[in-house]
Structure formats: structure tokens, C-alpha cells
Amino acid sequence: MDNRYVHLEQVGMAFDTKKGRFVALQNVNLDIAQGEFISLIGHSGCGKSTVLNVIAGLLTPTSGVALAAGREIDGPGPERAVVFQNHSLLPWLSCFGNVYLAVERVFGKKENKAQLKARTHAALEMVKMTHATDKLPNEISGGMKQRIGIARALAMEPKVLLMDEPFGALDALTRAHLQDELMRIVQATGSTVVMVTHDVDEAVLLSDRIVMMTNGPAATVGEILTVNLARPRDRLALANDAEYHHYRSAVLEFLYHKELRPAA
């Protein structure tokens, strides 16, 4: 049985600029199965976020086909929720209000207010933020804001959770804690996740497969590395794991050689 949910075939993305036509992506082919955790990694300007935005429906490819659940992606949809590096919370709404807004948009026509509130509370509980229910975004830390952003996305019950460097702006300890929380949540929900990252350790720790992008312009998929590490994963146990370091070295080697040989 074919359980893939996302299918990209010969996807290209070009932009018109003052200096002419800029080709960001070229011939990108990628299949993502339900329940997979995929990381997109590569040097700056390699089109990682562009691929993510194509899957999100925020960009329409100029060539090729992008499908979700067998249907062409023709715009954003609640089945594909996005978590950005910038949490994008509405500052005048409480943490509860920010999550409730998304819940109401997706389920408001078929559920009553009590059910919508229950969904919101469940999402906040999942990311361990019930203590901040009534707080405004400017009253909580950066890590907590990202938790609310993740709660808002998960509350929509998306088929795919899309994350664009969600922990990139956080300090190392907060980042590690949220990575652990994300692993716990994904295991509990069985979510399909596509995440853009610059962090090799993050990619190896979290992913089932790591998609390594070539340098831009005209970036494409260079290699795909399958990470066969048992789940659940413990970062402390993996620190001395030879297989973990093998995967880490493979990604670093790819990135290093791409840096030595920039695109023509």
C-alpha cells in the first residue's frame, strides 16, 4: 500500500527580479510518507525554505508537480500547518486566544464553543503550556512562544506539520529541550513532519530521512540519507553512539564538499 502523502516531481521555482530570471529550484523530486520526519538541510540559499513553501502552498512552482494526498497543491490548507522561526503570534491575543483562533477557523463550522475550547486546552497541554493560558506573547519567553506556535499548528490536526527553522533563534539549552518535546509530541501523534534546519545534530536526532540540497541557484536534491536509529531517541545515549556519528559525518561530508564546489 502506498502511504506517501507528499509528492514532488520535477519541481522548479523561478522568480523574476530586476536582474532577470532567478532559478531557485530545479528538478526537485521527493516523496514523503505518512508519519515520516523529514529534514531539509543545505547551505544558505539552497532553496530549503522554498521547497517547504511549495509544500505549504505559499508558492506555486513554475514547473513540475506538487501533490498532497494525491491532489495538486494549489494554496495553503489546514491539512498543512506551518511553524515559522518567528512564532507569528498575534500580540493582542492571549496564548489561549492565539491557539483558539486556529481551532475556530478549522473546526468552527462543525463544533460548538465548548468543543473548540476543549481542543485548544488539549493543544496547550500537549506542549506543556497550560500555565500560560491567559498570558500575552510579550509576557512569555521565546521558547514558550515557539511552544504556542507548535500548539496552534497541532490544534488544527494537520496531515503535515511544516517547520521552517523553528528553533533557530533560541539558545542551545532551550533548543535542546524543545527538540526533545517535539520528538515526544510526534511519537504521540504520529504526525508527518517536514523541517528546514541548518543544524546537523538536530537533523540526525529528529529525522527518519535527511534531504540534502545542492547549492543554489538552480538547487535540487543532492542526496537523501535514511537515519536508521531506533525510536524513542535519547540525545545523551546517542552522544557516544557510533551509528549516530556515522550519520552526522555523512551529512557534514556532503555539506563540506558542496561548500568547496559552489554551483557554476
TrEMBL record:
Keywords linked to the UniProt accession: ATP-binding, Cell membrane, Membrane, Nucleotide-binding, Transport
Signal peptide interval: none
Domain ABC transporter: 6-240
Coiled coil: none
SMART domains: AAA
Membrane topology per record: Peripheral membrane protein
InterPro entries: AAA+_ATPase, ABC_transporter-like_ATP-bd, ABC_transporter-like_CS, ABC_transporter_ATP-bind, NO3_transporter_ATP-bd-like, P-loop_NTPase
Localization (cell): Cell membrane
An annotated Gene Ontology molecular function: nitrate transmembrane transporter activity
Gene Ontology terms: cellular component: plasma membrane
Alphabetized Pfam families for the sequence: ABC_tran (PF00005)
Domain of life: Bacteria
PANTHER family named in the record: NITRATE ABC TRANSPORTER ATP-BINDING PROTEIN, TAURINE IMPORT ATP-BINDING PROTEIN-RELATED
Family as reported in the entry's similarity comment: Belongs to the ABC transporter superfamily.
Protein name: Nitrate/nitrite transport system ATP-binding protein
Organism this protein belongs to: Rivihabitans pingtungensis
